[in-house]
Write a structure and sequence with these properties.
Residues 28-208 form the Radical SAM core domain. This is 7-carboxy-7-deazaguanine synthase. It is an enzyme of class 4 (lyase). The chain has 208 residues and is of the alpha/beta class. The protein has one domain (3-205): Aldolase class I (TIM Barrel, Alpha-Beta Barrel). It has six helices and nine strands. It has a nine-stranded mixed beta sheet with strand order 3-1-2-4-5-6-7-8-9. The longest helix is centred in the C-terminal third of the chain and has 14 residues, at 178-191. The termini are far apart. Bound molecules: S-adenosylmethionine (SAM), ligand 2KA, iron/sulfur cluster and magnesium ion.
Length: 208
């Protein structure tokens, strides 16, 4: 089969990097996890902390069997699929294979592309730069809004109104703006108790 066909079917995917670390953000903060970072993103967040991922052509196509075999080398059985924007790719075969091998499979996504794959936990981090697809809201287990500017609180509420009732709602300071914005986030969370705070703890720990 040609590479383009393997990619289309989700049997091989552009892999930027894969690493075993500690989930730094969100509901699973502190859990050991194997991260699969897929290449390619067309959302264009000005503050994106992984801009190198954007150009899909930079990253080699790797067969999903090889990705899963590598993940099995580590003791943890939690995998986080991230990117780039992972939903730019067909995620059905990779997620099925991971689950068949006993992994819990979590997703980090902006939701800007149609959904694919079978996940145990979906983190939706919506962006102003490219709106989420409507069908992601009911699938989100966690809504994680990056706060860069005070106007992002209203943006967060717009998306919170669309997710399911039991979706965990998180405000995460944009890393470079943390010193200015964290105080506002703390005040907001105290006044709006449905919101919790998520910090990028891996950056404090100096781990990937
Ligand atoms: C690099 S993104 C990859 C997954 C997907 N494209 C997305 O945006 O959800 C992983 C997570 O990091 C967050 N993130 C990216 N840059 C950040 C920054 N500078 N400060 C805080 N969070 C950031 C994103 O919002 C997302 O929740
Ligand atoms: N440790 C660690 N936790 C993370 N949680 C989400 C990440 C991501 O880039 O998607 C990430 C990451 O890059 N590293
Ligand atoms: S959607 Fe995610 S990977 Fe894409 S630019 Fe925004 S933060 Fe970066
Ligand atoms: Mg990251």
């Amino acid at each position: 089969m040609q590479e383009s066909e393997l990619l289309k079917q989700g049997l091989a995917l552009p892999l930027m990097e894969a690493f075993y670390t500690i989930q730094g953000e969100g509901r699973y903060t502190g859990h050991s996890a194997y991260f699969i970072r897929l290449g390619g993103c067309d959302v264009g967040c000005v503050w994106c902390d992984v801009k190198d991922s954007w150009d899909v052509s930079r990253w080699p196509l790797v067969r999903i069997e090889d990705m899963v075999e590598e993940a099995l080398q580590y003791p943890g059985r939690l995998v986080v699929i991230t990117g780039g924007e992972p939903l730019m790719h067909e995620l059905g075969p990779l997620t099925k294979l991971l689950r068949a091998k006993g992994f819990q499979v979590n997703l980090e996504t902006s939701g800007a592309h149609p959904f694919s794959g079978e996940f145990d936990w979906v983190c939706l981090s919506p962006k102003k730069f490219k709106a989420p697809h409507p069908d992601i809201y009911q699938r989100a287990n966690e809504l994680k809004v990056v706060v860069y500017h005070r106007s992002d609180f209203a943006f967060a509420e717009q998306h919170a109104a669309r997710v399911s009732e039991n979706c965990v709602k998180l405000l995460q300071p944009e890393w470079s703006k943390s010193s200015e914005i964290l105080e506002k986030i703390i005040t907001y969370a105290k006044n709006h108790p449905v919101w919790q705070i998520s910090l990028q703890t891996h950056k404090f720990m100096n781990i990937p």
